[in-house]
Design brief:
9 helices
């Protein structure tokens, strides 16, 4: 028994020595881990709350769109963009509100959410779509140089034809048929062999426009 007590005392002494040397570090690590866990839980709760609130407001935008209530859509989308810009609902609300404004002929207010989405939308694909729609609105407003600037930057292959086709429209409006022909040809070539009905229809439209302004030399 004495031998056991001696061995036990020796182990206790070793543990005390180890703790005196490393105890502060271990405690610090434990505190940091605890704080990280609490912080992550708090962040998750905050993100969930943000998402729920943004979702509710997006429902208001959807209802306003169904009612063609441009002001209601604009205000709800504006709140989402201002307070919940980090959520996917901000991207969607911006595009939907812009469509409502455009549908009622308010191109000026359609530009605002599109300009935001074209630069700051969370989804790269939606940024490209916003740029395309913004360029279309600017074309309707006869702001040709601004519209052209929106379609000049590179885009993903799946959007290239639509950008090229719209670029052709802008160049025709600017009185530059030669450049317009090149843009329409680019759109037609990008859709060569397209089988989906929508892509095939766009190719036929771009080809008709190309034929209308003459063949590319």
């Amino acid at each position: 028994m004495a031998a056991f007590d001696l061995e036990e005392q020796e182990q206790i002494s070793q543990i005390k020595g180890w703790w005196e040397q490393y105890g502060t570090v271990v405690t610090a690590i434990a505190v940091v881990a605890a704080l990280a866990s609490v912080g992550w839980q708090g962040w998750s709760w905050y993100r969930g709350k943000q998402g729920a609130e943004a979702s509710a407001l997006y429902g208001v935008v959807q209802q306003a769109a169904a009612e063609r209530n441009a002001q209601k859509a604009r205000e709800a989308a504006g709140t989402i963009i201002e307070k919940y810009s980090g959520t996917p609902y901000a991207d969607l609300a911006a595009l939907m509100s812009a469509k409502v404004q455009s549908d009622v002929g308010d191109l000026k207010n359609a530009r605002v959410p599109l300009a935001w989405a074209a630069e700051k939308a969370n989804d790269p694909a939606l940024r490209s779509l916003a740029r395309l729609r913004l360029a279309s609105v600017l074309l309707d407003e006869k702001a040709y140089d601004e519209a052209l600037a929106q379609v000049q930057a590179p885009v993903d292959a799946d959007m290239a034809a639509r950008f090229a086709d719209l670029k052709g429209d802008i160049l025709v409006a600017k009185g530059k048929p030669e450049e317009a022909r090149a843009a329409y040809k680019e759109a037609v070539d990008a859709l060569a062999g397209a089988t989906k009905s929508e892509a095939s229809a766009l190719r036929e439209i771009a080809q008709a426009k190309l034929d209308a302004v003459g063949s590319v030399k």
